[in-house]
Design brief:
Blueprint lengths: L5 E6 L2 E7 L5 H9 L17 E10 L3 E9 L14 H9 L6 E6 L2 E2 L5 H6 L9 H5 L6 H6 L7 E2 L2 E2 L1 H14 L16 H13 L1
Antiparallel strand pairs: 1-2, 3-4, 3-5, 5-6, 7-8
Length: 207
């Protein structure tokens, strides 16, 4: 019974603390889990809002969403919120070109993107980090380094041949930057934890 009244906390596979639950707050738990105060997780940063970078005008997919318009200016974070099935994911996929919109337009820095073309979106500097990383964000049968390099194959080789040293170097660089926990970059991405798989998705686009 006494054990049920205590909590044991691990971080990066190592014991951090074991103490009574009584008097332990949520902030205390987070502080022990991540190793710093809760207020430092998402520190407020000053940012200067600039000109419009992304403009979506009257975007429509019949039967899915209709007449969606918004702008994102440099220095801004804009969120689409709604219940499951409200169309948030579908709007994002249409903006990126995964799904072709029936009407409306998407502009990046004033230039209209070709509808239904993820390649045009990528060339314009857009990225899509999907909510279902396993089905839409990663190729689970491929290695960590190959997944990170997927969006930059044209920079990693020539005539369709990938230079493995460049691919591995880029993956190693971003693995360090995002503090990826892994055994070998040659391992299948499926062996990683969910959080580390998400880091690989982010690394793919940031690279």
């Amino acid at each position: 019974f006494e054990l049920c009244q205590r909590v044991t906390i691990l971080r990066d596979g190592r014991w951090v603390a074991s103490e009574p639950l009584t008097g332990l707050t949520q902030d205390d738990l987070v502080r022990r889990m991540v190793g710093r105060d809760l207020a430092e997780l998402y520190p407020k940063q000053d940012s200067r809002v600039g000109e419009t970078a992304l403009s979506v005008r009257r975007l429509t997919r019949e039967g899915v969403f209709r007449d969606v318009s918004f702008e994102v200016r440099r220095g801004e974070i804009v969120a689409l919120a709604g219940l499951v099935g409200a169309g948030r994911t579908e709007v994002a996929q249409a903006v990126f070109g995964v799904d072709r919109a029936d009407a409306g337009e998407v502009r990046v820095d004033g230039t209209v993107l070709r509808p239904g073309s993820p390649t045009a979106a990528m060339d314009a500097g857009l990225a899509l980090v999907p909510e279902d990383r396993r089905q839409r964000g990663l190729v689970m049968e491929m290695s960590i380094e190959r997944n990170i390099g997927l969006t930059g194959l044209d920079q990693l080789g020539r005539a369709g041949l990938v230079r493995r040293a460049l691919e591995r170097g880029r993956a190693a660089d971003w693995a360090v930057r995002l503090q990826l926990k892994y055994g070998s970059l040659a391992d299948h991405v499926g062996v990683l934890s969910g959080g580390n798989q998400q880091k690989v998705v982010l690394a793919k686009w940031l690279a």
